[in-house]
């Protein structure tokens, strides 16, 4: 046996195997690396030479179906306007919509299908949905704008809560009641709220503000399926409340106001923004809502005189005649405009990869679409804005609501955020 020849053969085989393995690793690494498009811009999932794909996880068949439809239509209007003007980075924008019906498991499945080929999510409806997806979103570095405002969604680079959070708005609500409705030390305020992150976060804000003002909170936790609040009104009346806060949906707000009015509990009611919809002004509760309700919101009313809002409303009414112009239209369009600005800046910097889109977004400290207050996205642990509008129902106004107080920072907000 020729030992030298055998050794050479074995060495050659090992080298060949090593070269093949090395080639395989190199090829795999090349596949994983972002590619450069024909125009030199680095791209990743959701971006090709001629298209930018965005995803929307929305509710078109569940409790927030009306809101979901408004947001989807507003964002599609933005995409159409953007494409008519030449697109972004020379590419057409496409929004892929998935309906989860406010079912968390359906949303998780839809995200798995959608997330492989989109660069960002300008819409995800529901705090429970975002909470279930937040680790995946962070892993995928997929810039996401929730249509949810729980403070528990802060702290993740790719997840951007737009405007204020529920707790900040409720601090503004308590301040509004003490300033304008005569509430004083020792008085009791009721707070009706949905179980889950939305209601819990709102209650955190109201409890903190009440303690600071020397007020007492009597809380009433409800489920999204609870649409008759007679029992809650009875409990609040017995507790002698001088005002009521509600952090729930439109059906619950209507029931609260209607039942309270019919039972002689004529006290001010202040709702979180998701608790109002213009359709309420065509229900039997409309009179009670006009007489008793205010709404705290990061966004102005769609009836606002802001030029950007007026232009958006006119375009929406022309494109979708007969569709209600509600807060979802403003919220959805604002989110789409902010994302569009992020994508344009990322393109100018030479990269539309997910990671670079997130970095570009977080670099913005004074983002202003003209649809409300400027926002600072640089601190992941703080709300993008701490200024709250106070709105008031008005059946004659566009969107069924008007601005009662312009955006302002309520006393104690910085103390609360730093506590």
Automatic annotation (TrEMBL):
Query: What PANTHER family does the annotation carry?
Result: BLR6548 PROTEIN (PTHR47235)
Leucine-binding protein domain mapped to chain residues: 52-391
* Name of the protein this chain belongs to: ABC transporter
Q: Which residues form the signal peptide?
A: 1-29
List keywords of the entry alphabetically.
Signal
Query: What organism is the protein native to?
Result: Streptomyces pharetrae CZA14
**Which Pfam family, giving just one, matches this sequence?**
Peripla_BP_6
Q: Family per UniProt?
A: Belongs to the leucine-binding protein family.
Q: Where is the segment annotated Disordered?
A: 358-378
């Amino acid at each position: 046996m020729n030992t030298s020849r055998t050794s050479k053969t074995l060495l050659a085989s090992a080298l060949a195997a090593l070269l093949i393995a090395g080639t395989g690793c190199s090829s795999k690494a090349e596949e994983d690396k972002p590619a450069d498009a024909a125009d030199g811009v680095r791209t990743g999932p959701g971006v090709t030479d001629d298209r930018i794909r965005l995803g929307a996880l929305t509710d078109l068949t569940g409790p927030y179906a009306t809101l979901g439809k408004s947001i989807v239509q507003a964002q599609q209007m933005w995409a159409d306007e953007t494409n008519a003007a030449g697109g972004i980075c020379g590419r057409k924008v496409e929004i892929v919509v998935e309906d989860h019906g406010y079912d968390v498991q359906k949303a998780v499945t839809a995200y798995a299908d959608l997330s492989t080929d989109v660069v960002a999510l300008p819409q995800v409806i529901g705090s429970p949905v975002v909470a279930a997806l937040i680790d995946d979103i962070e892993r995928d570095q997929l810039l996401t704008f929730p249509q949810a405002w729980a403070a528990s969604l802060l702290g993740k680079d790719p997840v951007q809560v737009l405007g204020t959070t529920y707790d900040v708005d409720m601090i503004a609500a308590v301040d509004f009641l003490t300033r304008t409705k005569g509430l004083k030390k020792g008085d009791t305020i009721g707070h009706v709220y949905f179980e889950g992150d939305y209601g819990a976060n709102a209650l955190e804000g109201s409890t903190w503000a009440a303690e600071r003002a020397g007020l007492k909170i009597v809380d009433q936790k409800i489920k999204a399926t609870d649409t008759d609040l007679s029992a809650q009104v009875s409990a609040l009346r017995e507790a002698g409340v001088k005002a009521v806060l509600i952090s729930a949906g439109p059906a619950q707000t209507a029931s609260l106001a209607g039942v309270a009015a019919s039972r002689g509990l004529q006290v001010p009611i202040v709702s979180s923004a998701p608790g109002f919809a213009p359709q309420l002004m065509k229900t039997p509760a409309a009179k009670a809502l006009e007489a008793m309700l205010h709404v705290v919101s990061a966004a102005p009313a769609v009836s606002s005189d802001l030029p950007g809002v007026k232009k958006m409303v006119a375009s929406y009414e022309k494109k979708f005649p007969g569709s209600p112009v509600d807060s979802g239209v403003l919220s959805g369009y604002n989110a789409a405009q902010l994302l569009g600005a992020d994508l344009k800046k990322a393109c100018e910097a030479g990269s539309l990869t997910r990671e670079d889109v997130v970095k570009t977004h977080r670099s913005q400290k004074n983002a202003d679409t003209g649809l409300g207050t400027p926002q600072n996205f640089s601190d992941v642990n703080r709300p993008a804005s701490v200024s709250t509008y106070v709105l008031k129902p008005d059946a004659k106004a566009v969107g069924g609501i008007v601005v009662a107080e312009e955006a302002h920072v309520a006393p104690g907000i910085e103390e609360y955020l730093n506590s």
